[in-house]
Amino acid sequence: MDLGGLVTHVCSKLSQTDPASTSICAGFAQKWYQGLFDRYPWRDSITTLPANVSANVSSVALPTGISRVISIRYGGNHFIDPVDDNFLVQADPTIFDRTGIPQYYREYTASDGTKQIQLYPTPSVDGLLLVVGKKTLLPLVNNSDVPIIRNIDNTLLAYMEGEMLERQRQRGGAKLKFDEAALLYQEAENLEKQQTNVPRRTKNLTVSGDSLAEMVDAVCARISDYSPTMQILVRDFMRRNYRHIYDSYLWPESLAIVRVDSDGSQVILPWYICSVIAVRANPSEWPIGVAAPSSYFQITPQIFEQNTGPAVAYTMLTPVAVEKLSPVRELLSITSSDPSDNTLVMVRGESAGDIVSESVQLNGTSPVYTTHTYDTPLTIAKGITAGSVLVVGASTNLTLTKLMPGERERKRMRLWIQPNSATPHQCLLLGKRTIQPLVQDEDTPLIRNCANVLIQLSSADAWAYGPNKDAAAAATCKAAAAEALQTLLDLTMKQNTVDLRVIPDVEPYYSPDAFYSGFLKGAI
Questions:
Q1: Is 21 helix (H, G, I), strand (E, B) or coil?
Q2: DSSP code of 206?
Q3: 20 to 30 A Cα–Cα from 252, which one of 69, 219, 362, 375?
Q4: Cβ of 276: how many Cβ atoms within 10 Å?
Q5: pLDDT averaged over the chain?
Q6: 315-356 pLDDT, tens per residue?
Q7: In this predicted structure, what is the pLDDT of residue 512?
Q8: In what order do the strands lie in the sheet with 127-135?
Q9: Cα→Cα distances 108→116, 121, 515, Å
Q10: d(CA 253, CA 259)
Q11: pLDDT at 78 (0 to 100)
């Protein structure tokens, strides 16, 4: 109903159709329309608008059409938290003087009356804000103007009629109308919350559904909650439970045999190997075992300088962030394949016997350089990016590592084989694969037939930590998960061809006559 219709309905009902009454009634309509608009976050009152941010400029005007900020995204994937200056002075006092990727914001009114958004720290590059906010309310001025909020016409009419009755000093009738308006408002709010945009209640499930999305649906069906918030929580339960199961056993699917180049002493393993099971240092030699460096010092300390003879053991060294070590100490060049990437990349490593670290901000496809030189980069970590991030030695131009858009870092195990070899060679290694977490809805676990375990474990977590807590249901699901895990272990260990065979190594047999004969001849 438009403004003219609202005013005509009330004035006609109260027989107050003179121009003064209709004008006053229109004012009451605008007053209560503003009040209802501000009272609740109606879906019709929320909008999303962009705002451009300039480098080294700490504030930006609130986009036209938004009166208040609800949430802000900076760049492509950075959520910015609302804070006040008092919090920052206590928690991060240097943020007022820094530049970088904005992490916080506050709203304020400038001296000229404009609404502004203050960003902390000050953006170091041009960027884009995506602002979700409350719309600026357009007043009801003309008779053809219509309220943008649906289903509040009856509430508006009741408030307008109550105001007009109070104008006539009919306070008893006015009170009844205001009480009626309060009930009508509650009905409108309930309609907004309970009868529209209702989360899904059910979905067809498949017993063989092992993808992340299907397993999440199976958990949501068990707890009768398909809300988006619950689905996010269940996804987190599912991912962490999968990691727990993967790390608990040496599953056959997790094994990998790889050939790795060695420079004669150090071996940097592929990033997808998380633990070492067996190592053959040279194709012509037997497997070697792991040894602690302290054992070398006690038994054969000269082995560290020795560079001849067969390999006898290997030692675990600190993992590194690169696939190969540069032959010289140098700066690192970091580049993204996407021009919009401006996230931070954290670098830590060894440099001339010292540990140094820093954060470098990407500049799209233009290379950026570290301020420190590195001989052993230990950590190169980033956030989620739009493109792949390439790290290259600045002077040698060697490609050191490449991180995919969804990756945060890659850690590579490093072995030190003793004694050193004078020539580079290849090692043969048996290891356990690094877990590939369940990221997309289509992802499936590497471990076969583990869906039942994951679903029951995640259901237990949902009952224990979700909004609808039920300790008894959580205990039941946990017991079912333990039973499903035992079934999976039986399937893996007892129903596959994994029986071990012991093949003795037979030494040559010497008869006593042959021994003494050889001894007398000087052969022994």
A1: helix
A2: -
A3: 219
A4: 17
A5: 88
A6: 889 999 999 999 999 999 999 999 988 889 999 999 998 999
A7: 46
A8: 46-53, 127-135, 66-74, 78-82, 104-109, 115-120, 59-61
A9: 5, 16, 99
A10: 18
A11: 86
Task: From residue 469, give the alpha-carbon distance in Å to each of 202, 237, 489.
Answer: 20, 15, 30
CB 199 within 8 Å of CB 228:
yes
Angle between helix 228-248 and helix 212-223 axes, rounded to 10 deg = 120
Closest listed residue to residue 68, CA positions, set 108, 128, 31, 111:
108
Alpha-carbon gap, residue 82 to 119, rounded angstroms: 10
Residue pointed to by tokens 């602002």: 131
The per-residue pLDDT for range 458-479, each reduced to its tens digit, is: 999 999 998 889 999 999 999 9
User: What token pair was written down for 137?
Assistant: 């309310």
365 vs 367: CA distance, rounded Å: 6
Would you state the torsion angle of the CA atoms of residues 393, 397, 401, 406, taken in this order, to the nearest 10 degrees?
Answer: 100
**Low-confidence winner among 261-265, 365-369, 436-440 (lowest mean pLDDT):** 261-265
Q: Which residues of 114-149 are buried (b: 16+ CB within 10 A; e: fewer)?
A: ebbbbbbbbbbbebebebebbbebeebeeeebebeb
Tens of pLDDT, residues 78-117: 899 999 989 999 999 999 998 888 999 999 999 998 999 9
CB atoms within 10 A of CB 354: 8
Cis, peptide link before residue 199, omega less than 30° from 0: no
Q: Does the pLDDT value for residue 511 go beyond 60?
A: no
The torsion region of residue 239 among left (phi > 0), alpha (psi -120 to 50) and beta comes to alpha
Q: Are 349 and 374 in contact (CB under 8 A)?
A: yes
Three-state DSSP string of 476-490: HHHHHHHHHHHHHHH
| Percent of the chain as helix, strand, coil, to the nearest 5 | 35, 25, 40
DSSP string covering 278-347: EEESSTTS-EEEE--HHHHHHH-GGGGT---S---EEEEEEEESSSS--SS-B-EEEEESSTT---EEEE
For residue 421, give both structure tokens: 């070899």
CA proximity to 373, closest of 401, 325, 331, 321: 331
Please answer whether residues 425 and 411 qualify as being in contact, where contact means their C-beta atoms are separated by less than 8 angstroms.
no
Reported residue count of the chain is 524
Q: What is the pTM of this model?
A: 0.76
